[in-house]
Design brief:
Number of domains: 1
Number of helices: 12
Number of strands: 2
Distance between the termini: 35 Å
CATH superfamily: MetI-like
Strand order of the largest sheet: 1-2
Strand content: under 5%
CATH class: Mainly Alpha
Shape: globular
Largest sheet: 2 strands, antiparallel
């Protein structure tokens, strides 16, 4: 009997979903679609409408009218381009640090941890059991000028004796790196754990050194995890404002701090909405360019 291949199956012989099955699928999709509609689509359109409003002229704070004033976007970019540049610089630097720290850790858990693998995974996600704000505040104590970390670094002459680490860009980047490190480690571990060990052994059998096998075999095969981890780290880090507010100063303000201030303190809703849309647009463009450049469609 000849084997029945997919190419030999006639279109009329392919299974078709019944009307009952289609109704079941639609019913299962309704909760998710409603959630996206209420908590994503509606807020996006509301934010878009707010971004083109202007003051009503009544003199009351928070009173705006819809005038489709698109110049709000140009005014926001002109006034806060430095904050955008600082935000992306901090987020890119923190993402690279997360990758440099997270890849060896994920590699250790995936290939060398043995029976300690589950324990190490629990330790990676353990910080999530503590409030984000409390974790960030803890770094103010860790990086305090009279703390043991800074004192030890100064004693070893690794940093200048008059350097203040708290309320500085160093503290902000350190806080972002720490808080978003699990978002890098977990995708990397998932990608590394799926690699067939025989491929790595084959690299060694072909007289490749450990570093060569890592560079030529392991790292390319783990690229989906690298891309996922960098995106999961970079995107929320770009809009973060907690670390800059608690660990920085007026010269380390990120765009998230400006949006928060414009929304809740200045009550300038159009500018805050325009800044939010500009941030989303820039991140979307960067993500598309990055994914296309990484070529992950050839790796998955």
């Amino acid at each position: 009997m000849a084997a029945l291949t997919p190419a030999s199956v006639e279109p009329d012989e392919l299974p078709r979903a019944s009307g009952r099955q289609l109704r079941t699928v639609l019913l299962l999709l309704i909760p998710g679609l409603l959630w996206l509609g209420v908590f994503f689509v509606v807020p996006i359109f509301t934010l878009a409408g707010t971004s083109t409003q202007t003051p009503s002229g009544s003199g009351l704070p928070g009173e705006f009218v819809q005038t489709f004033h698109l110049a709000n976007y140009w005014d926001a970019i002109s006034a806060y381009r430095g904050h955008f540049a600082r935000s992306f610089f901090y987020s890119i630097l923190a993402t690279l640090l997360c990758l440099a720290i997270g890849y060896p850790l994920a590699y250790l858990i995936a290939f060398r941890a043995g029976r300690l693998r589950n324990l190490l995974l629990v330790l990676v996600v353990a910080p999530f059991f503590t409030s984000f704000v409390l974790r960030t505040l803890a770094w103010r104590q860790i990086l305090a000028d009279d703390g043991w970390v800074v004192s030890a670094l100064k004693w070893l002459h690794l940093i200048p004796s008059d350097l203040a680490v708290t309320a500085s860009p160093i503290a902000v980047v350190a806080g972002i790196t720490y808080n978003f490190l699990p978002f890098m480690v977990l995708p990397l571990y998932s990608s590394l754990e799926r690699i067939d060990p025989r491929l790595i052994e084959a690299g060694g059998d072909l007289y490749g050194t450990s570093f060569t096998v890592l560079r030529k075999v392991t790292f390319p095969l783990s690229m989906p995890g690298v891309v996922a981890g960098t995106l999961l780290t970079f995107i929320p880090a770009s809009g973060d404002y907690v670390n800059a507010a608690l660990l920085g100063n007026t010269r380390t303000t990120m765009i998230g701090n400006v949006v928060e201030s414009r929304f809740f303190r200045v009550v300038d809703y159009p500018t805050a909405a325009a800044l939010s849309f500009i941030l989303m647009a820039i991140i979307l463009v960067l993500v598309i360019l990055y994914v296309r450049r990484a070529g992950t469609e050839e790796l998955v």
